[in-house]
Write a structure and sequence with these properties.
Keywords: Disulfide bond, Endonuclease, Hydrolase, Lyase, Nuclease, Signal. One of its GO terms (biological process) is RNA catabolic process. This is RNase-like protein. Belongs to the RNase T2 family. The protein is α+β, with helices and mostly antiparallel strands and 253 residues long. The chain has one domain: Ribonuclease Rh, Chain A. The chain is 29% helix and 17% strand. Strands 1, 2, 6, 7 and 8 form a five-stranded antiparallel sheet that branches. It has a two-stranded antiparallel sheet with strand order 3-4. A two-stranded antiparallel sheet has the order 5-9. 32% of the residues are buried. The structure holds 2-acetamido-2-deoxy-beta-D-glucopyranose (2 copies). The site of one 2-acetamido-2-deoxy-beta-D-glucopyranose has 4 residues, from helix 8. One 2-acetamido-2-deoxy-beta-D-glucopyranose (NAG) binds next to helix 6.
């Protein structure tokens, strides 16, 4: 291993200099990713124990329905690791303003707190996803518009909420479903195995994977964190507290 280091030290800067010849390296010296994971969140599970209530949290918004919303579109390496915080343009809402209605409904935040990503503090979840993951999706997706619109396109095209409901897996606060059945419903619709993750027995996340031409592919690891019987809870919409509603107080005064 040590003997290959000097060679690498010469080749790496050369590749970066040549730029166009660096087939396997993207800006910032990260190795190009291998495949995409599209991660989806089951809104009903995410809102089971709402920690924060505020008008921007999906758990307080009735237009976010029971079903899957987008959690992220992540460039990944085959070995189970992933690049993050690559170089790229700073998040700019104006670049994706045409997508803002869809993003707000289908890629909502489940928190009232702002997130910090890649060393900089940003207000929104979308800014975080772009800085941490989106910037690493080059050269397949070259900018913020391509990144967010591709995620939405894949989400619309492979409607997992619909696949489940058509197979009889309906949102319910009492029904228990076989994990195996849920997995095979998705598998027979898409011809790939989904990754299913749970919080206790409630389905929390479904992930499906795509190659770099955006065709479905098997995920390298499909280990599930779920018990054999799982649930798909109905989303409980909790109104934000109105403790500081001055107009209300004013009316009463
Ligand atoms: C997915 O399918 C369901 C059920 O047919 C539908 O209500 C929902 O709007 C679809 N979601 C998207 C994002 O198209
Ligand atoms: C404040 O309370 C009033 C009366 O209940 C209600 O109509 C109004 O929508 C509330 N405003 C906000 C910002 O929650």
């Amino acid at each position: 291993m040590a003997s290959s280091l000097p060679a690498l030290q010469i080749i790496l800067p050369l590749l970066l200099l040549l730029g166009t010849c660096s087939a396997n390296l993207i800006r910032g010296g990260h190795k190009e990713f291998d495949y995409f994971t599209l991660a989806l969140t089951w809104s009903g599970t995410e809102c089971l124990s709402v920690k924060d209530s505020c008008p921007t949290n999906a758990c307080s918004r009735s237009e976010v329905e029971t079903g899957f919303t987008i959690k992220g579109l992540w460039p990944d390496y085959d070995d189970g690791t992933w690049p993050s915080c690559c170089e790229g343009a700073k998040y700019d809402e104006n670049e994706i303003s045409i997508l803002s209605n869809d993003l707000s409904k289908y890629w909502p935040s489940y928190s009232c707190m702002s997130s910090s990503a890649c060393g900089s503090f940003d207000a929104s979840d979308l800014a975080y996803e772009w800085a941490k993951h989106g910037t690493c999706s080059s050269p397949v997706l070259g900018n913020q518009y391509e990144y967010f619109s591709t995620a939405l396109m894949l989400y619309f095209k492979y409607n997992i909420s619909e696949i489940l409901s058509e197979s009889g897996y309906l949102p319910s606060n009492t029904a228990e479903y076989k994990l195996e059945g849920i997995m095979s419903a998705i598998q027979s619709a898409l011809r790939v195995t989904p990754v299913v993750k749970c919080k206790s027995d409630a389905v929390e996340q479904v992930q499906i994977c795509f190659d770099k031409t955006l065709q479905l592919q098997e995920c390298p690891s499909t280990a599930s964190t779920c018990p054999s019987l799982v649930s798909l809870p109905i989303k409980n919409t909790i109104k934000p507290l109105e403790t500081n509603n001055l107009s209300f107080r004013g009316m009463r005064a």
